[in-house]
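Appendix B. Raw example, untouched.
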Amino acid sequence: MDGSCASGYEAVGEVFAASEELGASLAVVVDGALVVDLARGWPADSIAMMMSVTKAFTATCAHLVLDDIDRPVASVWPEFAAAGKRAITIAQLLDHTAALPAVREPLPVGTLYDWDAMCAALAAEEPWWEPGTRHGYHAVTFGFLVGEVVRRVAGQSVGSAWRALVADRLDLDLWIGLPDAQTARVADLPPTEIPENAFNPFAGADPDSIVVRAFTNPPDLVEPGATNLPRFRAAEIPAVNGIGDARSLARFYGALSTGEIAVPPRAFVNRVRGVDAVLDMEDAFALGFMNPSPMRPFSPNPNAFGHPGAGGALGFADLDRRLGFGYVPQRTLAAGLGGDPRWQPLIAAVYACVPAQ
C-alpha cells in the first residue's frame, strides 16, 4: 500500500489495507488538508473511470456559469421547447424532475459519441411524465441535457469548461474527455461483478420501458467492455465517463465544503426524495448532487451531498465536518439497495476520526 494517513487517521488506513481490492485509491480532505491519501494494487498515479461520479462535475459547471437556474431551458436552448417542454427549467434538469431520462426512439449505434445527435434527440423528445411532479434518475441523458446548457451559455464544451473553471485552477486530475497524453495511466476495468442483491434494470422489464431505454439507448451503452475503449474515454459523455483519482476527487469535494469553489449553497440542499420513477428505489437529489438515501447511504449526515458511480466509485462532501471524500476502485461491483458494501467500513472509519466542527 502506498501513501499516508495524517496523525489520528491511522485507523482509516488499517480498514483500507484490509479491504478486498485489485487496485484502488482512497483520499480524505478535512478543512482543506489532505489527511488520507492511499493507493494499493496499482501505480500511485493511476486514474480510472468513475461513471456517474461525473455528474457532480457537470453540475458544478452549470452552477458556475449560470446566474439563474430557475429560468426555462428553452431560454438558452430554443430547440428544447419542442414536444411540450417550453416550461422545463434548468433546475429541473439538475434535480432529475425534467422527465427526460431516456429517448423512446431507438438510436443508431454510434449516437453516444455524436453530441449533436444526442442533443437533437433530447430536444425532440416528449417528457415521460409531467415535469416537476416526480423525479427519476437521468442516468445518461443528464450529461447531455445539462452539458448542452453549459455549452450554450459558456461557449465551450462541458469538458473544456470543467478544466477551465475548476480542474486546471485547482490542479485536479479529473477529466471529462481524456486527452491522449493521459491514456497510459488509465486502469482497465474488469467485467462488473453482480452480487445477488444487485440492481438489475432489465429483469422482467418491457424493452420499451423507461428503465431499459435509459440504460440501453443508444446501444453503445451496452457494448461489451465499453468503458475500456479509447473512444469512450476520449469522448465527452458528461454523466458517465469522468476519469480521475481519489486524491483529486476528495480535493474537489473538500473545496466545495469550504467554499473554495463558489457554488451557491442551494445546490447542495435536498430537493426531491422518495421512490425514483426510473429505478423504483428510494433515493434523494439536490441540484445535480445526490443526498444520502436508502439506495445510496454514503454518509451518516443526511445533509451531505455527492455522487456515486456504477461499479463503486464515490465522492462526497460534508459541510458540517468541512470534509471531502474520494474512493476510486478498479474492481467494479453492481450495487443494489444500500450501495457498495466496500463503502461503509471506510466511511465509518473516516467519521470516527474526523473531529466535530
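End of appendix B.
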